[in-house]
Amino acid sequence: MKNYITICCATLSLLTLISSSRPGTGRVAQAADSLQVRVVKDGLTMPWEILWGPDDYIWMTEKSGKISRLNPASGQTIQIGQVPDVKVTDYGGLMGMVLHPDFARQPYVFVVYTYQEGSRFLEKVVRYSYRQQQLSQPTILVSGITGNQDHNGSRLLISPDLKLFVTTGDGNRQNVAQKLDSLNGKLLRLNLDGTIPADNPFPNSPVWSLGHRNQQGLVLVDDKMYTAEHGPNTDDEVNLIRKGGNYGWPNVAGYCDENQRGEKDWCATHQGIEPLRSWTPTIGLCALDYYNKPLFPRWKNSLLATSLKASRLLQLQLDETGTKVIGVNEFLVNQYGRLRDLCISPTGNVYVATNNFGNDKIIELTAKGNP
């Protein structure tokens, strides 16, 4: 018999201090769904990325450089690779991963991680081939991105037109987020061979958007791309990305609303783009995914996000246009510690990875009464 814990979410307490909203952006609301929660796997060491693979396994990175496939029914893991030159620090190591959309015919796995070159701490994107249940033939697509102990990003996404998107952090060097000659503090867009697409907004540059601090969430919903971004002490953000858009960092944190910092004037001069939602104090907003499955009807047309510092899963209800967050519900509040990533199965089950620096877990959320 499965070891389920049933959580009646109507009884979950809400900490309204983590939400900073403006008129028209919605309110924090109590959830009414009930969840069944099952620990699929424990004993992990800081999983960073989990994604649902075409084989109906969960594909997973761990910060130490390990790449594995996880059977979501049995919890069995199969290691398929180990990145040899990964450099692990407090917040560096093996991070994001994405699979080629046509994986059956093009079995490529893309990863991003930090490494060391002499005294320099750097970051790169590498493509592996997957054959006979092992990763091989690493091909470097981008390298030399400045890394740091913190603020490294980094999520990967492949769009339907086969472009690779990469989020980068500012590497704790704030001013570079506004400089087009730096890859830090940006959302990058590349061809799958690492070359620069001709239709990028800045000539001969992989930069798609700029002015970001530390983006650790990335999802594409139809033609709309959303990112989740860590703020300093204020203003974690969910952003709707525009081609060539400037999101303000370090001149602006969150909304363009602080006269003392000159945020309003800066945004007017530079056409700064405000977030869809911000959180003050910060909650360590991390992964993003899009939910539109019938298993949880109340979650349809929602972004799901994980929180590190505030230790919870958030449901961000979108309006019909996808341009506003009209409500926020919270789940797993302070129950499993820091939550790093999530993925969604074709049937609508949600899987969440913890990030507690030891004995981390993959948790399954399904509807109450679902077998």
From TrEMBL:
This is PQQ-dependent sugar dehydrogenase. InterPro entries: 6-blade_b-propeller_TolB-like, Glc/Sorbosone_DH, Quinoprot_gluc/sorb_DH_b-prop. Residues 44-356 form the Glucose/Sorbosone dehydrogenase domain. Pfam families: GSDH.
